[in-house]
Amino acid sequence: QSVLTQPPSASEPPGQRVTISCSGSSSNIGSNTVNWYQQLPGTAPKLLIYNNNQRPSGVPDRFSGSKSGTSASLAISGLQSEDEADYYCAAWDDSLDGWVFGGGTKLTVL
Amino acid sequence: EVQLVESGGGLVKPGGSLRLSCAASGFTFSSHSMNWVRQAPGKGLEWVSSTSSSSRYIYYADSVKGRFTISRDNAKDSLHLQMNSLRAEDTAVYYCARDSYDLLSGTITMDVWGQGTTVIVSS
Fold first, then answer.
1. How far is B122 from chain A (nearest CA, A)?
2. Which residues of B touch A22 (CB under 8 A)?
3. B45, A37: Cβ pair inside 8 Å?
4. Which positions ≥6 away from B42 have C-beta within 8 Å?
5. Do A105 and A9 touch, CB atoms closer than 8 A?
6. Which residues of B are less than 8 Å from A59 in CB distance?
7. How far is B55 from chain A (nearest CA, A)?
8. With contact defined as beta carbons under 8 Å apart, do A70 and A30 qualify?
């Protein structure tokens, strides 16, 4: 049971837009910023969004993040086949004194 | 190039011990907090432990508290995880990950990850 709650799966056709939600509490998302990671099959996670809505250099602007209260979301527009991956949200939890992750969302580009 | 390379994984019997290492390069290791994160087969990411840059602050997930010990050697740019009393449920890929602190926003990001090392606990 993950501390942050994500839908287990999402799917959309190529070219469309998908949004992945991440729900937490006052001790994690409500108090700290949210990061999003992309994990392609068989590889290590890669930072996709940090500080709620910032993209590291090299991440296309098709990826965007937002946060409101104790929830956050990742949006991917203009879906491409190479976007098929697992996506995880994460935040520091002040009560647990550690990082907490969502359970991950498997994105399928139909 | 900023890089983290884990090593030390392997097959160990329940109750056994293993020491993981993470070699850092391409950045000032002593300026960053570091983490271990694991991923059981077919499962999601689970944070295991963190250490501040000077080792002053150390945190553990409840699932490993009392069994695992995180340490670092800033002179050798290396991070370690001593794992004792291993259980089947500790079977996972273990990733080393760097924290970066943004002075302007006061926020922390786990921004660089290694490729992982696999630990299998089985008799």
1. 22
2. none
3. yes
4. none
5. yes
6. none
7. 15
8. yes
How high is the pLDDT of residue B103?
A: 82
Query: Is some CB atom of chain A closer than 8 A to the CB atom of B5?
Result: no
pLDDT, tens digit, 9 for 90 and up, residues B95-123 = 999 999 888 888 889 999 999 999 999 99
CB-nearest partner of A99 from B105, B107, B110? B110
For tokens 């087969």, name the residue: B41
What are residue B117's phi and psi, to 5 degrees? -135, 140
Six-digit token string for A42: 């068989």
Q: What is the pLDDT of residues B14-44, one digit of tens each?
A: 999 999 999 999 999 999 999 999 999 999 9
Q: Which residues of A touch B115 (CB under 8 A)?
A: 43-44
Q: Are B83 and B20 in contact (CB under 8 A)?
A: yes
Burial class (CB in 10 A: 0-12, 13-18, 19+), B6: buried
Cα gap A52→B106, rounded to integer Å: 13
- The CA distances from residue A63 to A32, A40, B93, in Å, are 20, 15, 27
